[in-house]
């Protein structure tokens, strides 16, 4: 059974490229609103559902948050592949930091892993906000 995001209420949620900017538990300032520390955020859901959802080739999208869940599942998979050969915590930490510093293609650019999943950015600002690579 595929697990879907619990963030189905779209009211008051800002979107960039059709991707909802859902609240995150973070101290880092960014385009997404800050979530309360005791509440589950979309990243928590992606991590919790990863083991189950990674086995499915088809995923029925029920809300825009499901699109973000798909993308985060992909990103977690990329992160795990980067950690594969790391023998120490320091090497693994460096690998994940470097992954976070890489330029990420936005929808419509060559190399974006899911063409058609998100809408194309209407401006450079939206492209930068979409995947926070500005």
UniProtKB/TrEMBL annotation:
It is found in: Cytoplasm, Cytoskeleton. Pfam families: P21-Arc. Its main location: cytoplasm. GO terms for molecular function: actin binding. One of its GO terms (biological process) is regulation of actin filament polymerization. Keywords: Actin-binding, Cytoplasm, Cytoskeleton. Belongs to the ARPC3 family. This is Actin-related protein 2/3 complex subunit 3. It comes from Capsella rubella.
């Amino acid at each position: 059974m595929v697990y879907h995001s619990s963030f189905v209420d779209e009211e008051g949620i800002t979107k960039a490229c059709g991707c909802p900017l859902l609240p995150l538990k973070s101290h880092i300032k960014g385009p997404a609103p800050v979530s309360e520390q005791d509440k589950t955020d979309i990243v928590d859901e992606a991590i919790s559902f990863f083991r189950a959802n990674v086995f499915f080739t088809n995923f029925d999208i029920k809300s825009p948050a499901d699109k973000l869940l798909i993308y985060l599942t992909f990103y977690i998979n990329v992160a795990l592949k980067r950690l594969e050969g790391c023998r120490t915590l320091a090497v693994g930490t460096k690998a994940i930091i470097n992954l976070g510093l890489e330029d990420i293609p936005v929808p419509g650019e060559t190399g974006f892993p899911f063409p058609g999943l998100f809408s194309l950015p209407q401006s450079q600002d939206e492209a930068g906000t979409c995947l926070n690579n500005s």
